[in-house]
Design brief:
Arc Repressor Mutant, subunit A; 10 helices
Length: 218
């Protein structure tokens, strides 16, 4: 019985390793050539699998794209979790979370370029189970930020006249909009001598001043 369980565990680990190898290969090809320019046949060749075997792991390219998104969301969530666990004020935690988020975006430029370009089309095609999984991942991040804002309200560093969950939504919506800023708006900024890097820096300053509780606010 123990031998059977050990064999099953080994097979499950091997399956998970192969699945991650497929996701790694998909990332590499999607980032270098563009999502629309890569076929499942090419992916199968890249990981040295038969096309039929590849479909045992992922039913289509959209499923692979979705797997990449979930893995990146998990990575980012761990970064947010580390910030939330620090022994500092709620405001300091939220400040660090914003900073680390945009650093993560900068470190994963190809990923965010793909998400901003192809993401909207994918999300419209998500099936109910996939949509539920995505929403649950989003909720985890929102509730983490919500908790940090509540801490800030309790310790007097974050304004308490707005619901903390609304603050978490505002932060997520505005941050995502800036990450996927239309190229036309970037051109307008640059024409006025404002780099995208400076724009992000100023956004964090702006949003920080908006949520921080001032000593004379009472």
């Amino acid at each position: 019985m123990v031998k059977i369980m050990a064999t099953a565990d080994r097979k499950e680990r091997e399956k998970e390793q192969r699945k991650n190898a497929i996701i790694d290969a998909a990332e590499k090809l999607f980032f270098s050539r563009g999502f629309d320019n890569v076929s499942m046949e090419e992916l199968a060749k890249e990981v040295e699998l038969g096309k039929g075997t590849l479909y045992l792991y992922f039913k289509n390219k959209d499923a692979l794209f979705f797997a990449i998104i979930l893995r990146k969301m998990d990575e980012l969530h761990e970064i947010f979790r580390e910030c939330a666990d620090l022994k500092v004020s709620g405001r300091e935690k939220s400040k660090l979370m914003g900073k680390r988020y945009f650093e993560f975006v900068h470190e994963n430029k190809e990923y965010y370029q793909m998400v901003c370009t192809n993401g909207p089309k994918l999300f419209r095609k998500l099936e109910n189970e996939e949509l539920h999984t995505f929403v649950e991942h989003m909720k985890e991040d929102l509730l983490l930020h919500h908790g940090v804002f509540r801490e800030g309200m309790a310790d007097g560093t974050v304004r308490d006249d707005i619901d903390p969950l609304e603050l978490a939504f505002f932060m997520a919506l505005m941050s995502n909009s800036i990450v996927c800023l239309d190229p036309g708006w970037k051109t307008v900024l640059e024409a006025e001598g404002i780099s995208y890097h400076q724009f992000v820096k100023d956004f964090l300053l702006f949003i920080g001043n908006a949520i921080e509780k001032r000593p004379d606010a009472d």
